[in-house]
Amino acid sequence: MGAAPPADGAASLPERVGAFVREHVMPYEDTLDAGGPAADAVLRSLRERARRAGLWALPLPAELGGQGLGLARYATFAEAEGASDHGPAALGSAPLLDVTMLRRHGTARVREAYLTRLVSGELRTCYAMTEPDVPGTDPFLTGTRATLRPDGSWRLTGRKWFTSGAGGADLVTVLARTDGAPPDREGLSLFLVPTASPGFRVVRELPVLGAGGQWEIEFDGVRVPGDHLVGARGAALAVAGERLQLGRTLRCLRWLGQAQRAFDLMAARAVARTGSRGPLSAHQLVQRHVFESLLALRTARPLVHEAVARLVAEEDAHVEVGLAKVAAARTLQQVVDAAVQVHGAAGLGPDTALPALLRTGRAARILDGPDELHITSVARRVLGGYV
Q1: Is the pLDDT assigned to residue 1 strictly greater than 70?
Q2: Tens of pLDDT along 296-354?
Q3: Packing angle of the helix pair 318-343, 284-312 (nearest 10 deg)
Q4: Is residue 259 within 8 Å of 297, Cβ to Cβ?
Q5: Distance of alpha carbon 200 from alpha carbon 268, whole angstroms
Q6: Which distant-in-sequence residues (6+ apart) come within 8 Å of 165 by Cβ?
Q7: Residue 212, SS3?
Q8: CA triplet 137, 141, 144: central angle to 5 degrees?
């Protein structure tokens, strides 16, 4: 299961990953999107295929059962893997954020109990931060409360929503207030909570533009062991900040992969579709869609990889990640919209991936912080250097 450079004439790792996603994952996207037992069966089959192909858990730590490729190497094929929303789950890299967080900040018991099982795919995780009455951009207003009990455990009460994958998760990382009161900037902590705990409840699924996968969940006096505190008490925002920097960058790479997928569909359609005045590719307005989309892709890609480079070097990447997040989200929405326009009515129907990509593109400008948050944050940091 090693990932050594290929011999002469052999496919490169990005090519192998891209081929796996195209040939094995994309044909089953409708089933995977629908969820339920059928989706679980398909995902198990895809994961077994990935293991046999030597492509399982490529960026995850080798000592935990992954292949140990660092972020710099992973970034070379993360676009190809992320061309489908289900690529990271099928290839075993989906838990990278949680594994990274728990390796750095989890207690010895948490690391021993969960890390290997996360890498193997036995356990699924999710991350719960946003609340129904609290904007995700203002965590200081968090209302979920964790109270320390005499035996050293915690009592967790509150509600979260738009929690990706919560319906099938085994573990959920929860942002909760342990000290002070909203809007205090101190006193927020993170907890790792098994979803089998008494008092945990899935309230409802929250379709996003008609698609599932987001959930509202409730914690009604859930008992959390003391050693399931992630990081120090009151240190949630520092831990979450690390996670968000990496998570946003990974999303950007995957959005670029999906934008490239839409671009390829658009170009193929422009060449193949012929009317009474010749192929669409001969029309200047179609050529403009192609040009503007290519320009967006090639402008966003260096910004994303600059953010990767800063994270790899363990340097401050707030500006680079903010620029990359806005650029990648805008690019995905722009390129998919152009591809739909070139396809015409066919781009709105069930025969291409474009409707799903269009939905992802629109949601991308809100996920992990809306454009406005990143614009103001980056501008303030940059202007601060001129004071």
Answers
A1: no
A2: 999 999 999 999 999 999 999 999 999 999 999 999 999 999 999 999 999 999 999 99
A3: 160
A4: yes
A5: 48
A6: 124, 125, 126, 213, 215
A7: coil
A8: 110
Q: Which of 290, 275, 276 is nearest to 341 (CA)?
A: 290
pLDDT confidence of residue 10: 55
For 303-319, the pLDDT digits (tens) are 999 999 999 999 999 99
pLDDT tens digit sequence for 112-167: 999 999 999 999 999 999 999 887 778 899 999 999 999 999 999 999 999 999 99
Structure tokens at 119: 């890498």
Q: How far apart are CA 236 and CA 229, in angstroms?
A: 10
CA-based nearest residue to 78, from 291, 215, 218, 258: 258
Q: Residue 6 corresponds to which tokens in the numbers above? A: 């290929």
Percent helix, strand, coil in the chain (nearest 5)?
55, 15, 30
> Which pLDDT score is estimated for 368?
87
CB atoms within 10 A of CB 165: 17
The reply to whether omega before 370 is within 30° of 0 (cis) is no
Task: Indicate the pairing of strand 188-194 with strand 145-148.
Answer: unpaired
By the 10 Å C-beta count (0-12 exposed, 13-18 middle, 19+ buried), 366 is classed as middle
| Biggest CA pair distance of the chain | 80
Can you tell me which residue has the tokens 């406005």?
Answer: 372
* pLDDT for 276: 81
d(CA 209, CA 295): 28
Mention every residue, 6+ apart, whose C-beta is less than 8 A from residue 84. Answer: 21, 25, 26, 29, 90, 258
Whole-number pLDDT of residue 219: 98
Residue with the two structure tokens 């990359």? 324
- Is residue 345 packed enough to be buried (19+ CB in 10 Å), middle (13-18) or exposed (0-12)? exposed
Beta bridge partners, 190, equal 175, 230
CB-based contact 309:235 (threshold 8 Å): no
Closest CA to 220 of 132, 153, 144, 127: 144
d(CA 259, CA 361): 9
Tokens 């990509």 sit on residue: 357
